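Subject: for your reference before the review

Hello V.,

The reviewers asked for a structural picture of the protein, and I figured it would be easier to keep everything in one thread rather than splitting it across files. Below is the amino acid sequence we used in the manuscript, unchanged from the supplementary table.
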Amino acid sequence: MSASLQVTQKQQQHHLHQQQHQEKKQLQQHHEKKQLQQHHEKKQLQQHHYESNCYLSSKSSVSKQSFTTYQTTSRRLKTSVKTEKGQEVVKLSPLPVRAKRTYLAMDTDKEVIGYVIPVFRANHEVVRGLMEAQDEVTEEGINYVAMRNLFVREAREAVHVKVEKKTRTTHVRESAERVEMSRTMDEWAEFRKKMNPDSLMHLPEFIVKPRGQTVWEGNTVKLHCTVAGWPKPRIAWYKNNVLIDAKAHPEKYTAESNYNMHSLEIKNCDFLDTAQYHVSALNVKGEASFVATIVVKRFQESMEAGPLDPKPHGFCAEHGVTFETTIIDKFEVAFGNEGETLSLGCTVIIYPTVKKYQPEVVWYRNSVPLKPSKWIHSHWSGDRATLTLVHLNKEDEGMYTLRVNTKSGFDTYSAYVFVRDADVEVEGVPVAPLDVRCHDANKDYVVVTWKQPAVEGSSSILGYYIDRCEVGTHHWAQCNDNPVTYARFPVTGLVESRSYIFRVRALNKAGVSRPSRVSEVVVAMDPSDRARLRAGPSAPWTGMIKFTEEDSSVGFVPGEPSNVVVTEATKSYVVLAWKPPVQRGHEGVMYYIEKCIAGTDTWQRVNTGMPVKSPRFALFDLAEGKSYSFRVRCCNSAGVGEASVSTEEITVGDKLDLPATPGNPVAIRNTDTSVVVTWGASKDVSHLVGYYIECSVVGTDVWMPCNNKPVKQTRFVCHGLTTEENYVFRVKAVNAAGYSQSSSNSDAVVVKAAIAVSGRPTGVTLLEAAKDFMVLGWTEPANNGGADIRGYFVDYRTVKGTVVGKWHEMNHQALTTTTYRAENLKENVFYQFQVRAMNMAGVSKGSLPSASLECKEWTITVPGVPVGLHVLEVRDTSVVVLWEPPAFNGRTPVNGYYLDIKEASAGEEGWKAVHEKANKMKYMKVTGLKGGTSYVFSVRAQNLAGVGKASAVLGPILAQTRPGTKEIYVDVDDDGIISMVFECSEMNESSEFVWSKNYKTITDSSRLTIVKEQGRSRAIFNSPSLEDLGTFSCVVTNTDGISSSYTLTEEGLKRLLDISHEHKFPVIPFKNEMAMELLEKGRVRFWTQVEKCTSACQVEYVFNDVIVTQGKKYSMNFDRSTGIIEMFMDSLEVTDEGTFTFNLVDGKAKGTTSLVLIGDEFRELQKKSEFERAEWVRKQGPHFVKYLDFAVTPECDVLLRCKIGNVRPETEISWYKDKIEIADDDEDAKKIERQDSDLTFNIGKWIIKQEKQKESEGKKPPADDVPPPPRSKISKADAGVYEVQLRDDRGKDKSIFNLTDEGYQTVMNELFRVIANSSTQIQVLSTEHGIVLHSTVTYHHEDLRVGWLYKDAKMAASERVKSGVTGEQLWLKINEPTEKDKGKYAMDIFDGKDGVKRVFELTGQAWEEAFEEFQRLKAAAIAERNRARVVGGLPDVVAIQEGKSLNLTGNVWGEPLPEVSWTKNEKELVSDDHIKLTFEHGKFASITIDCVTTADSGKYALHVKNKYGKEAGEFTVSVYNPDDENKEEKKD
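And here is what came back from the structure prediction:
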């Protein structure tokens, strides 16, 4: 130690006693500074992410590094000071408190309870590596040694602290240091006493406590804490006092504990994660806990950040910027159908742009990253991220999240995708199952699982079929013959090393569903081989190869398997599992399975045909309810080994129960198309797959699925609902065993947006100013968030030039008006104000700041600006503007207002006054607006001094009637009560009807009584009078300005009072006055019908002022549901002439209706009644339902027909003509036919007597016995009186038809009508003689009159023009037609009345074609007539004796005279001495052959020819010799 330092120490000792009182004071200040610095250190400790009280050796590099950091931060600063002698002396700065840090932990009573080690800082990987390298016992030993060595060293260093001081200014500080050193020594001594391990144990203590957080829905939150304690405490996390099992829910929670640093990560937060989270630390000394509150806020549109608003991101040192991520153009909640392709996309903006830097874009489904596959395609274009889902399936349903990772942080966006089922092929079948997966795959065995669909179809699902397909083929094989009820099935019989895919189909009573999406490919192989394949290629081998002898176990029978257990047991199958034997050699082993029924000793081998390769086996076809034991044997080529130890007895049956019914669902409004549904979880459920939510519109029984993929949460947002529709919801749970019972229905909820924070107020203006106060006014928010505005808060700040101060609240209690008097202001100071609105959802954002307003007293004389402008009753052509008076009236009171208007798109010059004279009211209805145009309004106030400034502009207001707007209407009920009714279908829970008169809220109920009903409000007039005249309006609060008004005038009041009187003294209205009708048996029915009546309505039946009652003569009936009143009488007698009356009484309403039956009217009715009764008597026996009448068929057959009823087989049916019965053998009997109850007599039916006789004799007429042609369908011979009689023991009836005179003519007219209408259109036919116009009819009668007209004039018959009939063809022949015959022709056929015309225009092309054809045919006929021809005289063969002469003459015709020639054997003959050829008179051509010889035999022909043609008459001449014939006869 230097001399100067020694002198300094002596001086300090000399003055030590004198400064003790100053040291105490300094020491107290020193401790206060130390406490502040320790608080600062603790705050820094909490901010560090990886902090821990860790006990490591002082020689640890990590500890040295951390402790060195501590020493560096606590080192005193050195400065050089020169003394008077010129020597430099080192001067120390004041020593920080942190330099003397204690390492003993004390409780509140200053008792040492442990120690604290310097903060250990390292990254997460180092901590985890150190944690994994030590177990708990070793860690405690090392900690103990490290703690002891560290504290001994620190204590000794504290004792040998040396301080140099040259000046007097450090005396006080060094005294404090000595006191602190003394305390440290005392602590060290105390520590030595408590250095044994028992004294080191202490309760857990939270060094860093978890901090409560508020996050948005869909984000991830992490709670951190650091806990000290000895022994090392164990940590548990609780949510609302319920233990959190992070391992059971890894998709939701992640809990980590590393070196006393503990964290709980909550992923994808939703609204139900809002809770109190307890962290509990427990060791043998006790427990400590701490609570942190997590608040998850649901996103509100009104609070949405703009697309370019900055978000907090970290600085990226690599690129030297902070990347800010903004996601815009976001995909919404999407809906797709199975089989479709759906694309999701967002535009991502990364600012700033760094060349060649791209963010990492990751897509998630239900918080699980998505990998590209044939079903999922993702694309990043540099500014837009797109995800395409190919061939949608229900597996694709879920919450999709886009996460954009940058070097500065990340940003996310999420939305739900719903996948609807495809249309079923057969009505009522279930939809396809989903999520088919393969588990526990082995050499020949795999377990297939799936999830049940949301829709079971028209009946419950009976089971499932599992199909498999070998990869590379397209053949699907069904794995199970009988449907399985569990959503889990073991598939056996696979071929080793082959790959398979699986699918599942559901079955119900209606049929089989479509197959599910196929599973992932699974390979049938040993699990160890699969593990080696997944591990990938191993590192290159660099070791040594050793050759050893073959294992002696090769060739031995394998040992017995071990651990044979039943892994699954249902009523359909049982699955066994076991471990292979230890002794099995190099050769693989296979297995035989044996079963034994409980209570017996008989073991039966199950797989007798083929041993299995896998240590798994599924047994089917076991008897349900029976108990079995199982064992396994190994086998190889050496033989079958010993059996394993048998399993315990197991009873075949379902071990997994159906889920319990979920708790009651609660539906909460969310948006205009969605509802949030929460419910209680199913209790004591095993292997829960999830929940299905269903919805139904109230009033229907149709349930629709809200999700097609089960969800495990007990909260779900049901999207795609119809706005303003009323829904109920229910939930059902599902596990592998099936569906639970559906929960009870939720309360009905109307789909509409939930209540939100209101919008900002607008238009903050100054209404009045004085020396120390200002009156402010503003306009209420345009959007109140669906709830009433409960008040306003005003903030202010001062303004000095361009510098503005901080905002301060002016009122702590909400204001209920849109004006406020801001007091205690400073004169001539400028202020700015903003206003925030409050509703039940919270406080809105502040309005735009007002202009800078100076606080000084106004001296103006005119009134201020009106305030509170708002509109009601917005329609296409009108709107009502309302306002409040100004806060400042000026020198005199306000006596009127002026309302100005302009179109929103017009400039300032577009303002114009709505009215000329001042309006004393504080409202005005503006009419004459243009629909679809926006307008703005302002109001000016007036007093005696003049007109003030215009108010703040209101608007723009769109002149458009809101869809579904209803007006107030007036109703008068049955009691005559007059009321006004206003209906609204868009109300929410907080909406109210507010009635006003002349736009002042009605508070006095003496004139009106307000009654609220479902969706409407009724204002009832208590006593209508002239006092009630005025404009009544109604506003619905918390809606988009729904309102209406009704003006009650004096004329309208008078009309309503008249209607009220009619309702007070009502008359029962009749739909029909009393009427009468005749019924069967001649009964008479008197009846009437009232429009409406009650069940208490009574009827009084009166005849000639005498009340009649139910009895033998009268019977009554009154159906009150239909209002029909009836009275029946069996018959009318002479005494029944008079007046019949019904008197009705229904409460206070009355009604009367009467019917008078007297005189001729009564007698006519009486005759009809008697006739009806006679008719009824007639119909008791055989009778005619339809009397004898006639009909003409389309074939023109004339039929007499009738319809009979109530006949029996013994009923006689007789036909008569002219009172002569038609016998069975008469010719007319063949004309009678009967088919069921129809009788017909075919008058025109032709019967041949000869044929009839021959048929009776059994002979067929000869072929040449041709019957005469049929006669007419009807002729005068058929005229007569026809009669049909019916007769049996029950009675008789007859029907007569007079077919004479008028009757005959009527039939003929009908026949003519049918014939005329059957005629075809006129057609034209050309002949060699002229043109023929003709039409065809079905049948022609000789009496049918047919006339022809030419140019609408009747044509007379002539030699050139003739008309007639051939068969059924009507024709008109025009011989040698000329141009004069062109024109319009008409055929008039008599049809019994006027006639039927068929018209033909023989002009134009029709004439030309017909005339041309006529000329052609005429020329052809002339040519045919004048053609040269041989008309006769020549034989075909001539036989002549040799030596005789032959002379033949042929008759020839032709004009002009033909040329004649003869040929023999086709050679022309020339006249000579032997043959002479002559042609005389132009008609006779002759050939003469003198003295014929055999040489003259041959074929001859006479040829004639002229200009029209030629012809040949051929004949053969045969010359014979008699001598030659005689010689031949002799030879014979």
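For the response letter, the relevant points are probably these. The radius of gyration is 60 Å. The longest helix spans residues 20-47.

Happy to draft the paragraph if you're swamped.

O.
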